[in-house]
Design a protein that fits this description.
Elements (H helix, E strand, L loop, with lengths): L3 H15 L22 H9 L5 H18 L3 H25 L1
Helix pairs in contact: 3-4
């Protein structure tokens, strides 16, 4: 074995194929999904699987929740507090968006 880790991995894959371990994989035999960002496709997929998102995406979700709370709130003082919170979050969102570029 001139490349022990590679050879061992290949052997394990061949053994798994022989017993049909890959037969029930999602989308087996189908085309690979189209990737807009081929260079970062693996990283993007892994981040999506663990639920990670860029800061500006998380802030955008939070802003939507706070805006929804504003629409559901009738009490004047609470609405003013929510508007202040939205204002601060808007600034954070814009800064995070610029930092991402």
């Amino acid at each position: 074995m001139d490349r022990p880790p590679i050879d061992l991995i290949d052997q394990k894959i061949r053994e798994a194929e022989a017993i049909g371990a890959f037969g029930n994989l999602k989308a087996v035999g189908g085309p690979l999904p189209k990737e807009d960002d081929v260079d970062n496709a693996r990283l993007n997929r892994l981040m999506g699987e663990v639920g990670w998102a860029p800061e500006f995406v998380s802030l955008s979700r939070d802003l939507n929740w706070v805006r929804e709370e504003l629409h559901e709130t009738a009490e004047k003082n609470r609405r003013q507090d929510i508007l202040k919170e939205i204002s601060m979050m808007d600034v954070e969102f814009v800064l995070a968006q610029k930092a991402q570029r």
